[in-house]
Write a structure and sequence with these properties.
four-stranded antiparallel β-sheet; mainly beta
Amino acid sequence: QVQLVESGGGLVQAGGSLRLSCAASGSIFSINSMRWYRQAPGKQRELVAAISSGGNTNYADSVKGRFTISRDNAKNTVYLQMNSLKPEDTAVYYCNAFISVAVASVRSFWGQGTQVTVSS
C-alpha cells in the first residue's frame, strides 16, 4: 500500500510564504511525475505545478514566478515553495504522484490535502 502524506499548510498573510511537503511511503518501485493541485471552495480542482522524474517542471500561469516545485528522490518527497502569496491562493492543496508499485504497473495516488489560507 502506498500513502502520500502532506504537511506545511496553514494561515499566512498576503505577501508571505509557505512550504508544502508531500512524502510518499509504502511499496514503491519508482515514482514518475509528481504534482500539486489545489481546490478552492466552489471551484474545480486545478493543477498548480508538476515535476517529472527527471526534474522538468511546469506551472499554472497564475503561480509562475511565485511558486517553485522540487523533489528529493532519495526521500520520495515533493515540495512546493510558495512565495508572495495572495488571497486567491487560498485553497486545499493536494499532492498527486504516479507511482510504479511493480514493474509496468503505474498508478495515480493522492494525498489527503492540506489547507492554505492567505489573509488580506
